[in-house]
């Protein structure tokens, strides 16, 4: 067995990626402090062909060297937008027919293992601040709140890891 070369991976060019159909989901990052996490989520959004990445509140935005360092070029391929008001964004997406899914640990949450995305629906996954999580107002507005099962001593996962798990899970269940 040998590792594949970059040419053998047969990846899309940035222009091909921009023209390619995207999967019916977007990611919303709200008040993410770590620029490395933001860059990592850009790479995840590229890898799993998200339709868009929303950067809200204090979440850093390109160009910034710490985002660029971990994004490895994904800031050029992924469609993204910054908005200061995550609540207004969530409400606008819902009016446009998106199902908003906050990823948070709350009473009455749905375990990600039990989540079944509805066919022909578009999903917006909200990931919150590394310390305080998804804002209470967004949790209240969400159509569903998803929780990733965890079995260790820590109470949360890194935001970039969470994004990868949620995207992979969504695509596997479609």
Q: What features would you highlight for this structure?
A:
174 residues; alpha/beta; Alpha/beta knot; globular; Alpha/beta_knot_MTases; SpoU_MeTrfase
Task: Walk me through this protein's architecture.
The protein is α/β, with parallel strands linked by helices. The chain has one domain: 3-Layer(aba) Sandwich (Alpha/beta knot). Helices cover 37% and strands 21% of the residues. It is built from 8 helices and 7 strands. It has helices at 6-9, 14-19, 35-47, 65-71, 74-77, 86-95, 136-141, 159-173; strands at 23-30, 50-56, 80-83, 98-103, 110-111, 122-127, 144-147. It has a 7-stranded parallel sheet with strand order 3-2-1-6-4-7-5, with helices on both faces. Strand 1 (23-30), helix 3 and strand 2 form a beta-alpha-beta unit. Helix 3 (35-47) runs parallel beside helix 8. The radius of gyration is 16 Å and the shape is globular. The mean pLDDT is 97.
């Amino acid at each position: 067995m040998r590792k594949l070369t970059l040419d053998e991976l047969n990846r899309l060019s940035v222009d091909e990626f921009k023209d390619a159909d995207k999967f019916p989901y977007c990611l919303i990052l709200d008040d993410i402090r770590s620029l490395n996490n933001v860059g990592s989520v850009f790479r995840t959004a590229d890898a799993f062909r998200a339709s868009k990445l929303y950067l809200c509140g204090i979440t850093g935005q390109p160009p910034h060297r710490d985002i660029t360092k971990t994004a490895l070029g994904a800031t050029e391929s992924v469609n993204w937008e910054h908005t200061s008001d995550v609540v207004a964004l969530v409400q606008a997406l819902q009016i446009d027919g998106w199902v908003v899914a906050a990823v948070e640990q709350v009473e009455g949450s749905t375990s990600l293992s039990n989540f079944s995305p509805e066919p022909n629906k578009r999903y917006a996954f909200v990931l919150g601040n590394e310390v305080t999580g998804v804002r209470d107002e967004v949790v209240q507005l969400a159509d569903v709140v998803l929780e990733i099962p965890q079995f260790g001593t820590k109470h949360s996962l890194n935001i970039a890891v969470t994004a990868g798990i949620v995207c992979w899970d969504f695509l596997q269940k479609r």
